[in-house]
Amino acid sequence: MKSRKPTIKDIARRLDISVSTVSRALRNADDINPVTRRKVLELAEKIGYKKSVLAAGLASKKSYLIGVIIPEITVPFFGTVIMGIEEFLKPLGYDLIILHSDENVTTESDCIDLLIDRQVDGIMISLSMNTKEDDHLKKAMEEEIPVVIFDRYLPDSILPIPRVIIDDFDAGYQATNHLINKGYKRIAFITGPVDMFISQQRQEGYVRAMERHGRSTSADLIVPATDLRRSVGTALDKLMVLKNRPDAILAFNDPIAFKLMRLLHKREIKIPKEVAVMGISGDDMGELFYPSLTTIAQPAKDMGYWAANLLKDRMDAMKKAKDEGKVFIPMSIQKFLPIQLIQREST
């Protein structure tokens, strides 16, 4: 039977010190007692803890590994973001460790721990739909690992973490305005989880556009897909039993719109003749559906590129401050990227 590889927790347990102390010792951090550092390195060598990676890391004080955490691995949007990240970082010699939280905050926190254990040089993350606190991100920052957030974020976080995002309110507003301008009268909105911030913002944009045009925003026209795609059928059922059914449905994102279109086809409801459908994401897959999906496109590849750019800037700034014996003071940076209406056949 193959023996288990030793981990950073094994070193911490045998030396009776914290995991974070071991991590800082392995990364040769300046605030570690030299005696503690020597004990950690000697034990790591003795038990064979990532021996080759450790040797390279000690020589350069860099791992040339970047962690990327996404909430869903099957969603095309996040794959395109990763393409942008690679486009920026690969020429600089970095490799990616790509993890997915499966929309679970506990798994997300475990991913952070794993990346700290792997001594990555930086982390990029899009938060899960049920992430409400950022203690796990703070943990990475306390380990002197810079973090950048893209797409999904916590609006009330006080952590000075750069963000690369879109104006989700405007996305909801533009999408709804397009449907109104096309002549649709009763426009429904299938939201994401009610406590997800970007879902709230898109819904607020929808409501504002409807109200501005004197349209009804009754509660029966706003239905959440509480666990994203898996509950789209339930959301559609609630809309289709209404006495005055909607003639257009805006979906929180393209994957929900794709599921919605498939369900409408199965019920032999014609798109857009009987019900128009629109999404928000800009997934290339939307061109392959029949009818093709009208959407508000997010610049996913640019989002990845900019996130990587901001992460590299943060890594360089931290190194420069350390080399000069100065204290690095992180600043919050918010990079907004433009969105674009892509009109196709579904509206």
UniProtKB/TrEMBL annotation:
Coiled coil: none annotated. SUPFAM superfamilies: lambda repressor-like DNA-binding domains, Periplasmic binding protein-like I. Residues 6-60 form the HTH lacI-type domain. The keyword Hydrolase does not apply. InterPro entries: HTH_LacI, Lambda_DNA-bd_dom_sf, Peripla_BP/Lac1_sug-bd_dom, Peripla_BP_I. Keywords: DNA-binding, Transcription, Transcription regulation. The keyword Secreted does not apply. One of its GO terms (molecular function) is transcription cis-regulatory region binding. It holds the Pfam family LacI. PANTHER family: HTH-TYPE TRANSCRIPTIONAL REGULATOR GALS, LACI-RELATED TRANSCRIPTIONAL REPRESSOR. This is HTH lacI-type domain-containing protein. It comes from Flammeovirga pacifica.
